[in-house]
Amino acid sequence: MNFRQLRTLGAILRDGSFAAAADRVGLSHAAVSVQMRELESTLGVDLFDRSSRPVALTADGLRIARLADEVLLKLDSIRRYASGDEPSPSLVIGFVPTCVEHLLPRVLTALRESFADLQVRVRSGLSGELSAAVVRRELDYALLTTPVVEIPELAITPIAAEPFYAIGPPGLAGAGSDAELIRAMPYIAFNRRTWVGAHIAARLQQRGIHLSPAIEIDSLAAIEDLVAGGFGVAIVPARLHARLDDRGLTRIPFGQPADTRQLSLVHHRQRPPSATDAAVQEIFRQLPEA
């Protein structure tokens, strides 16, 4: 067993196939196959199920690949330390656009207070895009709408529940229910290709409320501006730490009890452990109280 074999095994874990791993480590597909056969012979364990297409890691192979990743991470740290080239700790964090304005500054402030030399990069995107980026290990963490289906690679920590409201212009204050309010004017929908938009559309369908959107966009701020301007009605979550709109919008809880959008922090289950992990996760868990 040697470090080259372990690096190749780690590449297969990350990229999902011999071919992709070969590109990453600069070997031919055949050379990768030979390396893995030799590693299996040395360890006396079947690392791969070769009856599947593409070849898949066995349970033993998955565990050994994760351990190999940890070993190689430590080895790289030792080399950087010995050469005096140890980099500052860094994080790449994703935020859905609806959380950028009100939550991102709080998170960055808390991180700066806890880790003076931590380098933080931020990426904004829709929940589906961010979750896929975490699966690909392009992001360390992402704050997003909780996935509606299980994504095995993701570890999910619930952060906050944001209640949904039906909203309309001030002149609709006499509406007796959320259903009456959202039928009173053209419907402005949150984009249904987003997880929030899909959630709202599903709830409307379950309640037998059939609406044809006059406008469909993916900005909550723009939706609220359009409603305040008298262009229609909408259903939106009350964003955590966002100040209540002071333009006198009509607001009625959507559903009884009010339906909610669950915000969660996600990271890859196989993400190598970091000295900042516990503090970072605690900062996000405290967001509802901050």
Could you characterize the architecture of this molecule?
This protein has ten helices and eleven strands. It is α/β, with parallel strands linked by helices and 290 residues long. The protein has three domains: 3-82, Winged helix-like DNA-binding domain superfamily/Winged helix DNA-binding domain (Arc Repressor Mutant, subunit A, Orthogonal Bundle); 90-160 and 263-289, Periplasmic binding protein-like II (D-Maltodextrin-Binding Protein, domain 2), CATH 3.40.190; 161-261, 3-Layer(aba) Sandwich (D-Maltodextrin-Binding Protein, domain 2), CATH 3.40.190. Strands 3, 4, 5, 6, 7, 8, 9, 10 and 11 form a nine-stranded mixed beta sheet that branches. The chain has a two-stranded antiparallel sheet with strand order 1-2. The model has no long low-confidence stretch (mean pLDDT 89).
Beta-strand content: 15-25%
Query: What is the number of independent domains?
Result: 3
Please give the alpha-carbon distance between the first and last residues: 50 Å
Helix/strand/pairing category: alpha/beta
CA-based shape? elongated
List the secondary-structure elements in sequence, H or E: HHHEEHEHEHEEHEHEHEEEH
Topology:
Layout: H1 3-15, H2 18-25, H3 29-43, E1 48-49, E2 56-57, H4 59-82, E3 90-95, H5 97-114, E4 119-124, H6 127-135, E5 141-145, E6 154-168, H7 178-182, E7 187-190, H8 195-206, E8 215-217, H9 220-228, E9 233-237, E10 250-253, E11 260-268, H10 277-285
